[in-house]
Structures are given as structure tokens and as C-alpha cells.
Design goal:
Elements lengths: L1 H9 L8 E8 L10 E4 L2 E11 L9 E8 H5 L6 E6 L6 E6 L11 E2 L13 H20 L2 H8 L2 H21 L4 H7 L2 H22 L2 H8 L2 H22 L1 H4 L2 H22 L1 H4 L1 H23 L11
Length: 316
């Protein structure tokens, strides 16, 4: 009885349960051995009881695994289920991981399809990965040697000292603002700024009050309509004068235009006759006038230089 209890405990309570086999074909049996656990969605249902070469030339069916599992678990397992190899511990030991999926139920001694993990290394660009590692190593080297802003921030104290200095300056400004003895503090704590802003507003309000009460020239103009009436009468008179000029015969008829045109034509003819006369046509007149003007100029220059020559006084 003691031996039976021990065997029952060692087998996980499956000693007297009905069991059956499932088969899985895998490409490589590294890390998997007889006695490896078999789980369905993380629940233990059996173990591997056989690892052998299948004799197939298909690269994904090289090794044949025989799984000894509970018959009850197989009868409720869907037909779309598949097997995969998972890692049991850091040492690299593996187990058979069955994923339950699909409809219907499996039959005992049937084959489970194998679905291996996706090969990440086939899609990995090792050259780019190596370049990224070199770049990361260069960045870490700069940080360790104190180069660059990040390296100076991590290794050096310059940025820390600058930050402390700026915080100290800010603290001094805040102290000046909080103190009532400084100019900034008086400006913040007193109502000088308020009065400075309030003064023009009060002046503008007083001006509006004077306008509303009719004080001053602008107020009288707004309150009294005499100036408005006078201006309106002047504009009406000017409008009537313009209308009268438009209606007059001088504007409506072309008599004045014809008279002015004749006068201008007669004046042009008179000027043309005067220009064609002997006074401007002959050069003798121009030369005579030029000679007379030069003689007058010489006389005036001589008189200006020696006026006694022309001024003769006689005493009677």
C-alpha cells in the first residue's frame, strides 16, 4: 500500500488513469528528452516517453516524439491544436507545449502538427545591428569620458554649478520682490503702478463727464444745436448756390465759351503780328537796344566809381 501511494504521488495521480499516445515530428531534439513534460495551455497532461529518428528526409520531420498523455485530455482537445517546444528552465531543458485551438476532438494515437517559433534571426540585419551597437558604444564612451552635454551633465559639475547660479539669481530676484525696501519690492507691494494706470483712466472719465454736462467748446457743440444748425444752413446755402450756377444760362449755353474763344484767338493773332513786325524781325533794333543798354551800364558804373564827376555845385 505504501508502495502504491508513492507511485501514485510520483506519477502525479495519473497511475490509474487511462493513457494514450500522441505523436509530434520536429526538426531538432536538442534540449528535449524522455520524461520531458507535456502541457496543454500550461496544464500538465503527460510526458515524453520516446525520442527517435523518424527516417524522413523532410527537414522539419527529422525527429519523432512519442507523447504519453491522459486519454481524457485527448478526447477534449480540438483537432486544430498544434505542438511547440518551450523552454522549461535556464539550463535549456525543454517541454512540449500544446496549444488548443479549432473545433472537433482529437483521436488517440493521432499526430499533432508542429509549429516552430518564428525565426527572428532570419529577418535581422546583423550589419545594421552591429552598426547600432557601435554607435551606442560610442555614445556610452562619450558619456563616461565627460564629452558632450550629456557627458558633462553626468561626469562634470559645470552644468550643475550653472544651474545653481541661475537658481541663486532667481532666488535673489524673488527676495528683492518680497522686500519692501528695494525698488522692485516697493513697485510690487505699493499702489504706485495702480495709480499710474488709474490716472489716465480718471482723466478720460472726467473728460467724458465734461462732454456730457456740456462744459467746454466740445461739450457745448454736443449739447447745443446752434452750431450744428448754423453749419447746416451754410451747407444748404452753398448747395443752393451751386444749383443756381448749374441752372444759369452761362453754364447751360455755349455763348460765354464762344466769346472767350474769339477773344483768345484775337489775342493770338495780335501777338503773331507783333512778332512779325520790323521791331523784332530786323536785327538793327536789337543791336541798337543792346548798344544803348551797354552805354547806360558803363555810365552807371562810372557814376558809382566817381560821383563827383557828375555832381557840380555852383554857389550864386
Amino acid at each position: 500500500m505504501i508502495l502504491g501511494v508513492v507511485l501514485w504521488l510520483l506519477t502525479g495521480g495519473a497511475l490509474f488513469q487511462e493513457q494514450t499516445h500522441l505523436f509530434v515530428f520536429i526538426p531538432d531534439a536538442t534540449g528535449i528528452d524522455i520524461g520531458a513534460p507535456v502541457r496543454v495551455n500550461g496544464i500538465l497532461i503527460g510526458k515524453v516517453d520516446g525520442v527517435a529518428l523518424s527516417g524522413s528526409k523532410d527537414p522539419i520531420r527529422i525527429v519523432r516524439l512519442s507523447l504519453l498523455v491522459s486519454r481524457d485530455a485527448v478526447t477534449v482537445m480540438p483537432t486544430g491544436s498544434f505542438a511547440d517546444l518551450g523552454t522549461e528552465d535556464p539550463a535549456g531543458d525543454k517541454f512540449v507545449d500544446i496549444t488548443s485551438r479549432g473545433g472537433g476532438n482529437l483521436t488517440p494515437n493521432s499526430e499533432l502538427p508542429y509549429r516552430g517559433p518564428s525565426d527572428v534571426f532570419k529577418t535581422l540585419d546583423f550589419a545594421q545591428f552591429q552598426a547600432n551597437l557601435k554607435q551606442m558604444d560610442a555614445i556610452l564612451t562619450q558619456i563616461e569620458t565627460g564629452q558632450g552635454l550629456v557627458g558633462q551633465f553626468v561626469q562634470g559639475t559645470q552644468m550643475y554649478n550653472d544651474l545653481r547660479r541661475r537658481l541663486g539669481d532667481m532666488e535673489g530676484v524673488m527676495r528683492n520682490a518680497a522686500s519692501t525696501t528695494t525698488e522692485v519690492g516697493q513697485f510690487v507691494h505699493s499702489d504706485a503702478l495702480y495709480r499710474q494706470f488709474q490716472a489716465p483712466i480718471l482723466a478720460f472719465d472726467q473728460s467724458l463727464a465734461q462732454l456730457q454736462s456740456g462744459q467746454g467748446a466740445a461739450g457745448q457743440m454736443l449739447r447745443d444745436t446752434a452750431q450744428h444748425d448754423q453749419l447746416d444752413a451754410t451747407i444748404r446755402g452753398l448747395r443752393d448756390s451751386i444749383a443756381g450756377m448749374r441752372a444759369s444760362s452761362m453754364i447751360q449755353s455755349d455763348t460765354l465759351y464762344n466769346d472767350l474763344n474769339r477773344s483768345v484767338t484775337s489775342m493770338i493773332a495780335t501777338v503773331d503780328e507783333f512778332n512779325a513786325g520790323p521791331m523784332f524781325a530786323a536785327p538793327q533794333t536789337y543791336e541798337s537796344m543792346t548798344g544803348s543798354l551797354k552805354e547806360l551800364e558803363n555810365t552807371l558804373r562810372d557814376f558809382r566809381g566817381n560821383p563827383r564827376k557828375y555832381l557840380r555845385l555852383k554857389v550864386f
